[in-house]
UniProtKB/TrEMBL annotation:
This is Uncharacterized protein. One of its GO terms (cellular component) is cytosol. One of its GO terms (molecular function) is alpha,alpha-trehalose-phosphate synthase (UDP-forming) activity. Transmembrane segments: none annotated. InterPro entries: Glyco_trans_20 (IPR001830). One of its GO terms (biological process) is trehalose biosynthetic process.
Length: 130
């Protein structure tokens, strides 16, 4: 099934253009983070991260609304790293897989991300990670 999730314009901007494309994409492609030494303390980083979580929660709510016992939910890429966690909060028995379409960054690169622990824990809520 394919069900649309409607995000408001500001959330899309902060979530997709901000956190996904400005923070995660460069990190996962070994380009580093913008202003790495100041990143965690900037308001723009926090607002982008908040929008990222908000968007993932919205996706989870729509999936949960349409979920039927026996369904397997397959989450794709760094845009949805919080989705496994939020889905499991709705239903701990839901079968969830998460797949990353790029190599996961090395620990040396990954450690530069202020939200790294929270993101990694969210992904590890999935039953299958690939």
């Amino acid at each position: 099934r394919c069900i649309p999730v409607f995000l408001d314009e500001e959330t899309v901007h902060q979530y997709y253009n901000g956190y996904c494309n400005n923070i995660l994409w460069p990190l996962f492609h070994y380009l580093g983070l913008p202003q790495e030494d100041q990143l965690a303390t900037t308001r723009s980083f926090q607002s982008q991260f908040d929008a990222y979580k908000k968007a993932n929660k919205m996706f989870a709510a729509v999936v949960n609304e349409h979920y039927q016992d026996g369904d397997v939910v397959w989450c794709h890429d760094y845009h949805l790293m919080f989705l496994p966690k939020f889905l499991k909060e709705y239903n701990s028995n839901m079968k969830v897989g998460w797949f990353l379409h790029t190599p996961f960054p090395s620990s040396e690169i990954h450690r530069t991300l202020p939200s790294r622990s929270e993101l990694l824990r969210a992904v590890l809520a999935a039953d299958l990670v690939g």
